[in-house]
Amino acid sequence: MSTPTDARSTTSSTTSSLRHVLVVGGTLAEWSALTDEAWQQRLERLGELCEQLGVAWLTIRAYEHGEETGLTAAAPPVHRRHPLVHGEVIADPQPDGRRRFAEAMQRIAPDDEVNEATVAAALYEPADSEPDLVVVLGPPTQLPPSLVWELAYAELVFIDVAWADLTADDVAAAIDDFSNRRRRFGGLDE
Q1: Taking a C-beta distance cutoff of 8 angstroms, is the pair 56, 15 a contact?
Q2: Is residue 185 part of a domain?
Q3: Is the dihedral of CA 169, 127, 162, 178 positive or negative?
């Protein structure tokens, strides 16, 4: 069986600088519609890709709340984690960036200094770094409401793929796109 990156020409020097990739896609109803088996399979495939490319952290986040349905109210998506050898795949169902930011601020201890590092640590725990790359499932004409903090720091790649159809190959293609461009956002010139 082939692996997601068999046909990729991604250079190891560029991908080795990727510590954290964030994939944003799907509504809460679409997330709830995935079976436990489908979730496990998706997290395993994406985890295999991360291991192959040396990406320590992959976070998957819902794009938006979407239409309110009985499904989302009755069975909200759960926060899922899939351990890797050197990191983790995290599925975070919180699509509201402002709410996520407020919750992160509440987790900062009262005695801790509030600065970029402590805010980032609270936003992304257990990941130990901010996303280098954000892969948005959808058109480049609309930004997800979940990306409040990330818009200032991460490189964005948009792919025209529906949440239900997302594969590890799609994420590999986005990482390949990232590795073949000069970083425009968030990176520091050396």
Answers
A1: no
A2: no
A3: negative
Alpha-carbon gap, residue 190 to 187, rounded angstroms:
9
Residue 123 is classified by DSSP as H
Q: Tell me the pLDDT tens digit for each residue of 137-164.
A: 988 888 888 887 787 778 889 999 999 9
Domain count, the chain: 1
Segments forming the whole domain that contains residue 164: 12-179
pTM for the complete prediction? 0.80
The CATH number assigned to the domain holding 48 equals: 3.40.1180.10
- Is 186 inside a domain boundary? no
Tokens standing for residue 162: 């529906």
| pLDDT score recorded for residue 183 | 63
How many other C-beta atoms can be found within 10 angstroms of the C-beta atom of residue 145? 16
Find the DSSP H helices in the chain.
12-15, 28-33, 36-53, 70-74, 97-107, 116-124, 168-179
